[in-house]
Specification:
Layout: H1 2-32, H2 37-55, H3 64-71, H4 86-101, H5 109-122, H6 135-151, H7 154-165, H8 174-192, E1 201-202, H9 211-237, H10 243-250, H11 252-269, H12 279-287, H13 296-310, H14 317-335, H15 340-356, H16 359-367, E2 370-371, H17 376-393, H18 397-406, H19 410-413
Helix pairs in contact: 1-4, 1-5, 1-6, 1-8, 2-4, 2-11, 3-6, 3-18, 4-5, 5-6, 6-7, 6-8, 7-8, 7-16, 9-13, 9-14, 9-15, 9-17, 9-18, 10-11, 11-13, 12-14, 13-14, 14-15, 15-16, 15-17, 16-17
């Protein structure tokens, strides 16, 4: 079990390396030939969706809903391979990497959950039949380890498991959970060092001047995140009767190519800012070395939604952090607030909390990127306010997508 926990961490580390190099190759192509994404991105998107639907339908989307679906008691053990398996782990790694090689707006953190869960789930066949370690415990530990290793945030992994995955007390296995997170996090730190996701966000002394801008960030993040979640849920549910949804259902590969073209156009218009996970743009904002357009939030919002709508394997965490950070940066400029990184951090926590409706997970993930504890209460308040506003606009995204995943069960289809 411990060996597979370490293997899960190493697998996420390998996945991180693949995605980083793939995105670097895309940006190298884009800098040399600005028009190349207009051809490469649509063709790649169509190929990814075709391969996904034909050979690995369980790899489509984030990966978090698949793990949540596999954890429900409605899924018999024999059908859990529909959602998590070694085969899906390999497929998810390759297809998500190709998505970033194509410049699509997606993240690797959600896929890391399914990837690590698939590795940990495989450990069950090597355990004795009388072992007290259940499949649910392995899936839960694997999913948490995936988040911990992807973000290098072990506390975030623990809270993600509690808040998102383990919705029933009997699904919690604290010893296994902590062991998997410690080992997976250790693997990530051994290779990449500590606090390398966005570097360290340094926060200056706070004052009452933060109250109004901070509240504005929380409210705007909540409204924007709730709207994003609602639009995405309507798009992916297949229940809409609009012409685009009909086109998506009738010709998914052609629809994906059209989505890829829109993402490429948004990238060209934004001078390459909206391509990929948004990591580079967010880091440049935090370091004050980049020029952030006021339209970035809108363009990144659209690029991320359209990428997810296309049906490619890819996550939402990193793009959500990028959108929230840019929103906080815009409000800092609008209100002339001098400590811009503070509002960027609040925006990151707020928008991620609004999209996932998991405020404690969002707050802890961002908190572990912050140097110092002076912003802890502000981050928590921003995440809670944003999540509360989001709940007025949209149903919880991941549980709703997990319910869609359950429709793939043979007994549901008949």
């Amino acid at each position: 079990m411990l060996a597979f926990a370490a293997l899960a961490g190493l697998t996420v580390v390998a996945f991180t390396w693949l995605t980083e190099h793939a995105l670097a190759q895309f940006f190298s192509l884009q800098r040399s030939y600005w028009w190349a994404p207009l051809l490469w991105t649509p063709a790649s998107t169509a190929a990814i969706v075709w391969l996904t639907q034909r050979y690995a339908p369980g790899a489509a989307g984030s990966g978090i809903p698949q793990v949540m679906a596999a954890l429900t008691h409605e899924v018999p053990p024999v059908y859990r391979r529909i959602y998590v398996s070694f085969r899906l782990t390999a497929s998810k790694m390759l297809l998500t990497t190709w998505g970033l090689l194509a410049g699509l707006s997606l993240g690797r953190e959600g896929p890391s959950v399914q990837i690590a869960a698939g590795v940990m789930h495989h450990a069950r066949r090597w355990l004795p039949s009388q072992s007290k370690v259940s499949e649910h415990g392995l899936l839960l530990a694997g999913g948490a380890a995936g988040i911990a290793a992807a973000f290098n945030t072990p506390l975030g992994g623990v809270m993600f498991a509690i808040e998102e995955l383990s919705r029933k007390p009997e699904q919690r296995s604290n010893g296994l959970l902590l062991a998997a997170i410690v080992l997976a996090g250790f693997m990530a730190i051994s290779v990449y060092g500590n606090s390398t996701y966005f570097g360290v966000i340094r926060i200056e002394n706070l004052s009452v001047a933060l109250l109004l801008p901070g509240l504005l960030v929380a409210v705007c993040s909540g409204a924007a995140g709730g709207l994003f979640s609602r639009i995405l849920m309507l798009s992916l549910s297949g229940k809409s009767a609009d012409r685009f949804s009909k086109f998506r259902k009738k010709a998914p590969a052609l629809f994906a190519a059209a989505c890829g073209l829109v993402v490429a156009i948004l990238g060209v218009v934004s001078h390459g800012d909206t391509y990929g996970s948004g990591y580079n743009h967010t880091r440049d904002m935090l370091e004050g070395t980049g020029d952030s357009s006021s339209l970035y939030v809108l363009f990144k919002f659209m690029a991320t939604w359209i990428t997810a709508w296309a049906g490619v394997p890819g996550g939402l965490f990193a793009p959500a952090l990028a959108i929230g950070g840019a929103l906080g940066n815009d409000i800092a400029q609008l209100t002339a607030y001098v400590n811009t990184p503070t509002l960027i951090a609040l925006g990151m926590a707020g928008f991620l909390a609004a999209v996932t409706q998991a405020p404690l997970t969002a707050f802890i993930i961002v908190m572990e990127m912050v140097d110092g504890h002076t912003l802890v209460l502000s981050l928590m308040a921003s995440a809670l306010v944003a999540s509360g506003i989001s709940r007025l606009i949209s149903v919880p995204l991941y549980p709703s997508l997990a319910e869609l995943q359950l429709q793939r069960l043979p007994m549901r289809q008949t």
